[in-house]
Amino acid sequence: MVTEALLRRPARGGAGGPAPRRHGRPGAPPRPRDLAADPGAGRRRGGGAAGPGRGGSQAVHRQPESGRPPGRRPGRGGVPRRAPGGRGGPAPAARAAAPDPSGDRAVPPLRRGTRRSDFSKEPVEHRRVRGGRRVRRGLVQGLRTVPPHRHRPRQRRPVGQCLAARGRDRLRPGLVRRRGRGCDVVTTASTEKSLGPPFRRFWASAAAANVADGIRAGALPLIAAAISDDAFGVALIAACQQGAWLVFGLGAGLVADRLPPARVVAAADLLRVLMLSVLLLLVLAEAVTIPLLAVAAFVIGVAETFRDTAGHSILPRLVDEAQLERANGRLIGTEIVGNEFLGPLIGAFLFATAMFVPVAVDASALVVAVILVLTLPRSASTVTPRPADEPRPRLVTELLSGARWLLSHPRLAAVTCSGAAIAFADAAWWSVLVVYSENVLGLPEAGFGLLLAAGAVGGTAGAFGAERLAGRLAPQTVLACGVLLSGLPAVVIAVSGDTAVTAVMLALSSAGFALWNVVALSTRQREAPRELLGRVTGSHRVVLFGSGMVGALFGGVLADAVALTTPFYVAGALVTVAAAGVLFVFHRVGEAAS
Q: Virtual CA dihedral for 328, 333, 334, 340, nearest 10 degrees?
């Protein structure tokens, strides 16, 4: 009498399992899978000891007396032999069906070169790791196998978890590590998350305002030259626009801290629209003069001072800290395109049409900017309340509080000093660049315009590429690279005397300045207190504008007294010292913190 259970060779733990399930109609020939599980099924096709059909007996496989499972050879690591009958013969008992872990049904046997996936019952191709190397031998049931790398799902872990085992605890925020096919890629987490609709509206508002500024920068000198032949009048208008920062820079920071920043931006743009409307009426009435044009330029410059300072305070309220470099790169890149490239071209083209057209388009663009700013969320207009028990300080103390905090913060003080060096050196050699292009390079006025366009293209590329460098390098490294790139190309220009080299070096210089500007602004927005951010920004920009004005005067005097290329060499030496100072201060602060 034959038992109903099948005595099988144990898989790995030695435990047996139920007999394999038969498939098909009664009396049908057995399938190859059934033959693999029961070699005697082919001989019982017409019947057996217990009768024909599915009532027939089943073969019994016994363990040999040596204790070794059938179908194995000693010393081969448990690799099964081929079937005695060749490729089409019956399979040994080692290839019998494995028991299902759930106990509900038997699992079909495995074939050579396949394994059961961890996620489904279907066999998949695999390679087994054995003895520290990958082999393509037959499969032994119950042996744990490692699938190839392509079967592993992609995983993402923060850098802190990836490098914690290596003892590296200082990690930059906003980085993730991707597990790829055989390699790890470190990317910024800010690229995984959108900046959001509020930032896009703020970005569009800034783009409209920057294009308006560029149109005005190209049209006002042309209007002044059309109504007067005096060169002093043209220079006076440019000085009135830039000098507003020196007079109202600190006050603009205090207003940005005490009032809602979004409302300050909207009010400043409305003031500029009002002044441009008055100027438009004067141009249409042909009553505009140089003094009236200078007053209009100064008022517009003051409003621009308040607008830019409050705009820098809005951005940290709209995006996360890890996305500051990305957002600032877009804003500064748009500012370069609008102020230095697209806006002046539009202003000159519109002035060729009629004198009043650029003024009208300028005012219309600012109206669009006001509408977009007013659609920002309420978080863009929040103000840090003053404690009730704190006495109100004097006005002068409040104005200087941002400068005092800036000087007491070593990293931001180093950033401001490096910015002053960049502004001084940049203004020194840019002030004589037009003379250099005419006397040394032999370029006409149109050629100098092409050089300026090359600089604008480089600045745009540097601003939009700052996010990638900031996500892979330390802030002090990016700042030092920006400082060096802004001034060292001037030395190459002075040495080469070639037009093509000059265009490339101007693009590199503008890219370095934009790179430094993005990282410096993001560092200031990240580390300065929210209640002092406006005054810190105002103090920083006052230092930069003052250094730029002094550098322009110094460059002209030095070129007349020594040589035309002397400001270029001085700029290169100055930025080298500034870059070394940034690295030294950040290193000392890091050692003190650790």
A: 140
Residues 564/439, Cβ–Cβ less than 8 Å:
yes
Domains 193-384 and 403-594 share a fold: yes
- Any idea which residue has 């090359």 for tokens? 454
- pLDDT of 572 reads 93
Q: Which residues contact 363 (CB under 8 A, 6 or more apart)?
A: 212, 272, 273, 276, 277, 280
Q: What pLDDT is stored for residue 300 in this prediction?
A: 94
Distances (CA, A) of 369 to 110, 195, 231, 359: 70, 19, 33, 16
Which residues have a Cβ under 8 Å from the Cβ of 419 and sit 6 or more positions away? 516, 520, 540, 543, 544, 547
Helix (H) or strand (E) holding 115: strand 114-116
Quote the pLDDT of residue 112: 53
Fold of 193-384: Growth Hormone; Chain: A; (1.20.1250)
What is the spatial distance between Cα 70 and Cα 408, in angstroms, rounded to a whole number? 83
| Parallel/antiparallel/unpaired status of strands 128-130 and 175-179 | unpaired
Domain ranges of the chain: 1-108, 153-191, 193-384, 403-594
Looking at the whole model, is its pTM more than 0.85?
no
pLDDT higher than 70, residue 498: yes
Beta-carbon contacts of 22 under 8 Å, excluding residues fewer than 6 positions away, are: 30, 34, 54
What is the third-level CATH fold of 403-594?
Growth Hormone; Chain: A; (1.20.1250)
Mean pLDDT for 295-314 is 92
Question: What is the reported pLDDT for 108?
Answer: 53
